[in-house]
Amino acid sequence: MNLQGRSFLKLLDFTPEEIGYLLDLAADFKAKKKARIPHKLHEGKNIAILFAKDSTRTRCAFEVAGADLGMSVTYLGPSGSQMGKKESIADTARVLGRMYDGIEYRGFGQELVEELAKYAGVPVWNGLTNEFHPTQILADFLTIREYFGSLQGKKLVYMGDARYNMGDSLMVGCAKMGMHFVACAPREYYPSQELIAQCQQIARQTGAILEFSADPMAATKGAHVIYTDVWVSMGEADSVWAGRIQDLTPYRVTRELMENAGPQCKFMHCLPAFHDLNTTIGREIHEKFGIDCMEVTDEVFESEASIVFDEAENRMHTIKAVMAATL
Questions:
Q1: Structure-model confidence comparison of residues 235 and 57, the more confident one
Q2: Catalytic pick from 6, 68, 101, 136?
């Protein structure tokens, strides 16, 4: 499998075989990391990571993975470059492409990372956009493989707001890998009809099942994984909280939902999660709305069924695989 020179912008661009290869490579890197076997495959290379949106896991994963591969990493935060302000995306891409061997972008519209890739002349990796979060899905799938042995036929239920990057990307990934995907949410929170149609076409080739339900108990029955994310994404106005809490509280992941799924079910979340009052935002929401958790209860988050920190660790191993394969 040769992915050299390819950008990693969305899973729609990759075949099931290519995605499987990246997961195998990530598993190999993880084993080497645990055994302290050096793997500096790209020693002397340099990468830039551009963050229009802050992150803990994505930044640390790219920096540690880059160091493990022997590379130098330059971090540019939300105020660290002139991209999109005094300098166009295309001009920024052409400058950075002359200095770096690869570029990561985490920010807003998918069109921005696509434009970077068009002009950079080096691989560009999507660390998150409004529409897609492909490196997260690789980490999720590696984690599912570790617990269940394979992806084919496994049932993943996404609870809550499925219209944005996580709902979109999980649906695409499940379609590609022959899984059973369920978006459980009010109808207005489903992915776009255009993307659903694309994924249904893929599913006909892979044997995947795509379902959409507004009934949490029916949707989660027999699930291998129940997955959720925050109800308000970074960059959205605070004014949307009231509506989201009203609409999505029935889709909170609770002990009852996990028990309804069955003893095999694992809980996953891309993090950060609002499961208690130990965050500034969590306390603010508690003061305004009187709730002590949002998308998941603390009981589920801290339970033995929760594999969120295995998932978080796997961000680094899968990002390493993407960079190693494409540089």
A1: 57
A2: 136
305: its two tokens: 């069924």
With a pLDDT cut of 90, the percent of the chain lying above it is 93
Residue 136 falls in the annotated catalytic set: yes
β-pair partners for 159: 184, 228
* 106 catalytic per annotation: yes
Question: Mean pLDDT over all residues of the chain?
Answer: 96
- Beta-carbon contacts of 270 under 8 Å, excluding residues fewer than 6 positions away, are 133, 136, 140, 166, 229, 311
94 is annotated as an active-site residue: no
- CA–CA gap between residue 325 and residue 202 (Å, rounded): 24
* Active site annotation includes 293: no
Does the active-site annotation cover 229?
yes
pLDDT per position as a tens digit, 120-163: 999 999 999 999 999 999 999 999 999 999 999 999 999 999 99
- Residue 25 and residue 40: Cα distance in Å, rounded? 14
Active-site option among 270, 275, 293, 317:
270
